[in-house]
Design brief:
Layout (H helix, E strand, L loop, with lengths): L4 E3 L24 E10 L22 E2 L5 E10 L2 E13 L2 E7 L6 E2 L4 E2 L5 E7 L2 E9 L4 E5 L8 E7 L4 E8 L2 E8 L7 E6 L9 E4 L3 E2 L5 E7 L7 E6 L5 E6 L11 E2 L4 E2 L5 E7 L3 E8 L2 E7 L7 E2 L5 E2 L5 E7 L2 E7 L3 E7 L3 E4 L2 E5 L8 E7 L5 E9 L9 E8 L19
Length: 431
């Protein structure tokens, strides 16, 4: 079935982003007519899953996709082929319906971050910990077929989160010291060491104007975007800012407590940023309203609003934005949970509860046996407009049979070669 497209006029506010590019070329929202399974996990008592060692499992994770279609995601429990009881965390890498576990950690590593980052060369950055201590950043190299820890400067952090990866080997991340936060970046394996603290909260530096830092995202220009509280940590005055590696920053948007002319009462905790400095965020509006916005050098563009058109609500997961300004996000519509892509003028439904997709087991329906969420984590989009998402599955018209959870790529229809969809379900591990 062809997705529903809603035409709308963008709402534009006066906004100038210092130090960002105004040369972003907007692309039309594509149709999504081909959705391909990459991997599937299920309880071993039900079946062996697909493109994963039998009995392996992941939960509440986010997958990412680069411009060449390589998909990566963390797997919390990776089994050994001859011993399903031996479990350890690992990462999955593949494309075009083929892939597998490319790196599996051993003790003392016990935990892996719920999201990873991928660059143009299919290198994958992620975070591990041991009993939620001894946090480390790792970079997997598909050429070397090896994962190596990225050295960070002292002091030793309490925790690490929200990993990003630039094509030049710079990892961006949130670092915590005894409950206080900073946004930082490190060029992996650089000589001399190349680590930068972009911003800290007032618990680390009393002169910092920011009482609290939320979940950051970094682009290829080593610019980190993030929501911050201005003033004491419990103060609800909120801004979204861009923090450069040289320590400078620029306000993207502020709430109405800071700027009385702002239509926004606040922002969700996670944001996305593209290489032009455009930011995608979920905003809060008066009267319990919610909307997805893109903020760029031209102004503020409304992508979708709760209760407007097909979108009945917007979920509390980070949107993602590509370099053409397309924004993907989780929402609900008349059928339940769904994933949408918009540009401020058009809105396209990618997939949602009740949709039937092709899987290794046959036609499968997105859904659960009850009202539980059908999607895991946040969707991600590449510059071609391809979207990767994770969805719960059951046989068509039979929600009481468990077919586990699948990782899917919805390919943008315009200008694409569809021949790769004939490659079947071979499950080859990438080189």
């Amino acid at each position: 079935m062809k997705p529903t497209v809603i035409r709308r006029n963008p709402v534009v506010l006066a906004l100038a982003l210092a130090g960002t590019s105004a040369g972003q070329a907007l692309a039309a929202v594509p149709d999504y007519v081909d959705i391909q399974l990459q991997a599937r996990t299920n309880l071993l008592v039900n079946d062996n899953g697909y493109n994963l060692p039998p009995g392996s499992s992941f939960n509440s994770i986010t997958a990412v996709i680069n411009n060449d279609g390589w998909v990566a995601f963390p797997v919390q429990l990776v089994t050994l082929p001859d011993d399903p009881s031996d479990m350890a965390p690992g990462i999955w890498l593949g494309r075009d319906g083929k892939g597998g576990i490319v790196y599996r950690h051993e003790a003392p590593v016990e935990n892996i971050s719920d999201r990873v980052a991928i660059d143009a060369g299919a290198r994958v950055a992620y975070i591990t910990s041991n009993d939620f201590s001894d946090y480390r950043i790792w970079l997997y190299d598909p050429v070397e077929e090896e994962s190596a820890p990225v050295g960070l400067p002292p002091p030793t952090p309490t925790s690490l989160a929200n990993i990003s990866l630039g094509d030049d080997g710079v990892v961006g991340y949130q670092v915590t010291f005894a409950g206080n936060r900073a946004f930082a970046s490190t060029r992996a394996f650089a000589t001399p060491p190349d680590s930068v603290t972009h911003v800290v909260d007032s618990g680390i530096d009393p002169l910092s104007p920011y009482g609290y830092l939320y979940s950051p995202a970094m682009n290829n220009q080593r610019v980190i975007a993030g929501k911050v509280n201005v003033g004491p940590s419990l103060d609800n005055k909120e801004e979204i800012r861009l923090f450069s590696a040289d320590g400078s920053s620029v306000r993207v948007v502020a709430d109405s407590d800071i700027d009385p002319s702002s239509p926004f009462t606040g922002f969700d905790n996670s944001v996305a940023v593209n290489d032009h400095g455009a930011v995608a965020a979920v905003v809060r509006l008066p009267g319990n309203g919610r909307a997805v916005y893109r903020f760029d050098a031209e102004g503020a563009v409304e992508i979708a609003r709760k209760g407007d058109g097909p979108v009945t609500d917007i979920e509390f997961f980070a949107p993602a934005i590509n370099n053409s300004g397309l924004v993907v996000f989780r929402a609900t519509d008349a059928n339940g949970q769904a994933i949408y892509v918009g540009d401020g003028q058009s809105l396209v439904r990618v997939a949602g509860r009740g949709d039937v997709l092709v899987t290794d087991l046959g036609p499968a329906q997105i859904g659960q046996h009850d009202s539980s969420p059908v999607f895991s984590g946040a969707p991600h989009i590449n510059d071609n407009g391809d979207v990767v998402f994770i969805a719960a599955l059951h046989p068509e018209e039979n929600s009481q049979v468990e077919w586990g959870t699948g990782v899917f790529v919805a390919r943008a229809a315009a200008g694409k070669d569809d021949t790769i969809f004939a490659n079947g379900f071979e499950g080859d591990v990438p080189p």
